[in-house]
Sequence to fold (162 residues):
Amino acid sequence: MARRLLIIACVFFGSIAAAPAQTPSPEAMAAARSLVTTMKLGDQYKALLPAILLALKPTLTQDRPEIERDYEAMLPAVADAFAPYYSSMVDAIAAIYANNFSASELRDIEAFYRQPTGQKLLEKSPIIAQQAAVVGQDIGRKASDDLRARLTDALRQKGHKL
Fold:
């Protein structure tokens, strides 16, 4: 029985792994790239560069002023080196959208984001996501504390010493 389940699982997972990735149409990719541009996702990714460089600085410069000066002087060249990653990110995100929506749907979504309400959503999304994450963490922490207390009580009632 276990062997039969193992064979079925292998065939199932093998068929999933063997399935080729869907290639979006050129029209869908063009619409998706336009949407990604309208959504300013590339700008958001470019905005990560200063944070990445700031995080790398202590490790690379080791609080040595002579290295810090050279590090700061190299930053413009580093920004140029970042460009291929930026292009790759834009293309990858566009492909994700193009694989999940038709070209027509992508144009509809873009039309929404070009309207004032869509622009406001784009503007407010980072802060809303941050606030939602805080709510999720707070509620998750409260739920975890409650569940821990309930499970501890239930295990103690069964005679376990915790």
